[in-house]
Amino acid sequence: MDEKLQPTLDALGERFSAQQQKFGAEIYLVVEPGQLVEFCKTLHDEFHFDMLSDLTAVDYWPAQEPRFHVVYHFFSISNGIGIGLRVPVPGIEPTVPTIESVYPNANWHEREIWDMFGIYVEGHSDLRRILMPFDWEGHPLRKDYPLGYEEVQFTFNYDQIDKRKPYAKE
C-alpha cells in the first residue's frame, strides 16, 4: 500500500467510523449511505481528492442485507493517489444520495446505476435512463434479471433446437 494513502485512510476511518476492507490489491473504506455526501465533501475539500474517476455497483443477490455495494473510486491529482469507497445498500428500496454537488461528473454515473441496477439516487437532478430505451422494463445488471437468450446448440440438444427452426422438417 502507498504510504501516502494510509494517513488519509486512518483519518477518514476515525472521523466516519469507516471500516477498511481489502478487495484484491485495493483497500476500500466502507461507509453508510447517510454519511456519503459528508464523506465526499471531506474527501474533496480537506484531502484534495478532486476527481471521481469511477462509480458502479455490485449485486450480491440472493443476499438482501446488503444486496448491493455502490463502489466509488476517487483520485487526488495533486497527491497522485487514489482511494476506493463502498456503500452497502439493501435489496428492498435500494437508495443512495447524489454526490453531484461535490463531483458534478457523478451525474451520468448515477444515472447508469439507476438504469442498470435500479438503485435510486435521491436528490439527483435528472434521474432517467441513460443506456437502455426509456420504455425498457427492469434493470439488466441485476443478477435476478431474466436473461432471455437463445439456447446454444450442442450435440446433446441438436434435435431439440433444430425442431424450433422455421425451416425444420417435421
Radius of gyration of CA atoms, rounded to a whole number: 21 Å
Order the strands across the largest sheet as they lie in space.
1-2-5-4-3
Stretches with pLDDT under 50, minimum 5 residues: none
Taking the alpha carbons of the first and last residues, their distance comes to 66 Å
The level of helicity is 10-25%
Number of strands: 7
Shape: elongated
Query: Could you tell me the mean pLDDT?
Result: 89
Folded structure, characterized:
Helix content is 24%, strand content 25%. The strands form two sheets. The protein has a five-stranded mixed β-sheet, with helices on one face. A two-stranded parallel sheet has the order 6-7. The chain has 170 residues and is α/β, with parallel strands linked by helices. Helix 3 (106-117) links the parallel strand 6 (95-97) and strand 7 (120-122). The longest helix is centred in the middle third of the chain and has 12 residues, at 106-117. The model has no long low-confidence stretch (mean pLDDT 89). It has four helices and seven strands, in the order H-E-E-H-E-E-E-E-H-E-H. The relative contact order is 0.13.
